[in-house]
Amino acid sequence: MEIHKAATKKETSQAAARLAAATLNQAIQTNGKACFVAATGASQFDFLEALTADPSIDWSKTTMFHLDEYVGLPETHPASFRRYLRERLVDIVRPGTVHFIQGDRDNPQAECDRLNRRISQGAVDVAFVGIGENGHLAFNDPPADFETEAPYIVVNLDEACRKQQVGEGWFVGVNDVPGQAISMSIRQIMKAKVIVCTVPDKRKAQAVRDCLEGDVTPERPASILQRHPNAHIFLDADSASLLKRL
């Protein structure tokens, strides 16, 4: 794990986007294609803006997998992560292949099974992720399942996670946030050759300190990133403000 710090949120996101683009380009140069995982949330706004503005990437040679999605939420809902990714990534650069999580299918486990078959067909070159205010990684809230080998799983969202979604403006109240989601599992995220984790903002400072300087534990799901040999954590001055070793 390597920590990168910049002064501002925008500089942090631009640095993360440069590494993401370089990783995609290297995979395309080496293998003729690249597979990536895309995250959502407020922490990814500036990162995706910078990444989609990079003219060097041949997006037609990429395959995108979706990190997580609410169960039962239609794509038309303002908080839908499919809608988010269409507006901020897919409709802009048009990856060659896109595997969205259909969270509003009647059988969430069947949707997991479908995605599990798809993602198991090859390696993931790079995963774009963030860290939640409660330390979650994707929608793996504490205590996260560090053991399951299933690439996608149905998870329950805890109150802290649901409050974060309200705080970011995606929902009016906690009761409006779905109680479940389909999420890429911890072990599947860790299988990515490179992880680009973008975590700006003061509200993430405590989670950043707990996950990056504390013990690796399911109670702090993103702490698992400490064990990834090629995980890059991009922080701004605010999110890094409580770190003692930086």
Fraction of residues in β-strands: 15-25%
Assign a percent range to the helix content: 25-40%
Q: Separation of termini?
A: 13 Å
How many domains? The number is 1
Q: Which regions have little confidence, pLDDT < 50, spanning 5+ residues?
A: none
Specify the number of helices.
7
* CATH-defined topology: Rossmann fold
The secondary-structure element order is EHEHEEHEHEEHEHEHE
Question: How would you sum up the major sheet?
Answer: 7 strands, parallel
General form: globular
Give the class-level CATH name.
Answer: Alpha Beta
Number of strands: 10
Which strand order does the major sheet show? Answer: 1-10-9-6-2-3-5
Summarize the structure.
The chain is α/β, with parallel strands linked by helices and 246 residues long. The protein is built from seven helices and ten strands. The chain has a single domain (2-235), classed as Rossmann fold (3-Layer(aba) Sandwich), CATH 3.40.50.1360.
Structure, explained:
With 246 residues, the protein is of the alpha/beta class. The chain has a single domain, classed as Rossmann fold. Helices cover 32% and strands 18% of the residues. The strands form 2 sheets. A 7-stranded parallel β-sheet has the order 1-10-9-6-2-3-5, sandwiched between helices. Strand 2, helix 2 and strand 3 form a beta-alpha-beta unit. The two termini are 13 Å apart. The mean pLDDT is 95.
Protein topology:
Blueprint: E1 2-5, H1 9-31, E2 34-38, H2 45-52, E3 62-66, E4 68-70, H3 81-93, E5 97-99, H4 108-119, E6 126-129, E7 152-156, H5 159-167, E8 180-184, H6 186-190, E9 194-199, H7 205-213, E10 231-235
Parallel strand pairs: 1-10, 2-3, 2-6, 3-5, 6-9, 9-10
Antiparallel strand pairs: 4-8, 7-8
